[in-house]
Amino acid sequence: MSWDLWVDYHRRDGDGLTHASLKDQTDGVSIAVGQLISVGNEEADPALAEVVSINERGIVLVRILPGTLGHNRFRLPLGGTSAS
Question: What is the pTM of this model?
Fold first, then answer.
């Protein structure tokens, strides 16, 4: 399974946002604020997430949408960049 951005689902803050890093984006994927991307890791099912912010150090905050990636696939634009 592949994803646009590797995340540790346990790295959530008090606002419910998951913290990740641009260094963990999949090669060839460009991540921008407001974009819907696939996220995941080797130990959990992939999910769809909204990119909320990216700071100058490359820290990405995402809001993971409820449900599976397959359940949310209709939210992705046709020809979207989601790697999965």
Answer: 0.84
